[in-house]
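Design job #97: recover the sequence.
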């Protein structure tokens, strides 16, 4: 396994890492490894916007006809009062 040395780490950052490691019941070293793994897990995955992700979820689901545009129609607010 490789080793990584972090120099010139701010004292406050070190203290926050210690507190976080203690909350998770592990060493600072293991906490740092977990933080690095989590930060890099999606590295290399293409970055897409929310709209593209939603479109991908429904791509190929079998829509039979075009969806009519709603331009020119008046939008009326819903009345939630009984």
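Job complete. Output follows.
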């Amino acid at each position: 396994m490789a080793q990584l040395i972090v120099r010139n780490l701010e004292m406050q950052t070190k203290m926050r890492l210690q507190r976080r490691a203690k909350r998770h019941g592990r060493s600072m070293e293991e906490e740092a490894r977990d933080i690095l793994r989590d930060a890099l897990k999606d590295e290399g995955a293409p970055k897409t916007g929310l709209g593209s992700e939603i479109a991908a979820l429904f791509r190929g689901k079998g829509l039979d006809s075009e969806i009519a545009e709603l331009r020119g129609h008046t939008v009326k607010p819903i009345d939630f009062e009984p």
